[in-house]
What does this fold into?
Amino acid sequence: MLSQILQKCKACSACKLCETKTNTVFGCGNENADLMFVGEAPGEKEDESGIPFVGPAGKLFDKYLEYVEIDRNEVYIANILKCRPPKNRDPLPEEEDACISYLREQVRAIRPKIIVCLGRVAAKRLIKPDFRITAEHGKWFDKQNFKMCAVYHPSALLRDSAKKADMLKDMKMIKEVYDSIRKEALEK
It folds into this structure.
């Protein structure tokens, strides 16, 4: 199912970003993941490789995953946008609107139990339009069939190291919820 969505996504011309991309950055990881991370858009390294979160922010994100003992290969990682905005600017609302259906299809195919938004852009789109990352990071929301929360985007941590302690606390909490969901599944 994901391969069909990927093919549609690669052929997409719903916005102008398709004209400047090197690669479609669709997503990666376990296609049956209980835990899914969603960022806003690919950066330069992601556009070059076609894989989300492989640049400097991605390397920092990997360290947090490793620290809380979550294997990157057991989760699924995607972005709202599948093409890089020029100069890594924030996605425009019309670009998000053009691309959000691909993310929805990914979520339907993967069926995660937990969705973690990486940063305010993803949180505003997926959790609530007035989401405030500094006040609401690490807070849980029940939306449809998902437990959702948002954490700081790893690139924000590269710019402001004072946020790293909050990120670690949030990642530990995500690990606890993730472990409890996996334990419940095993007991069924």
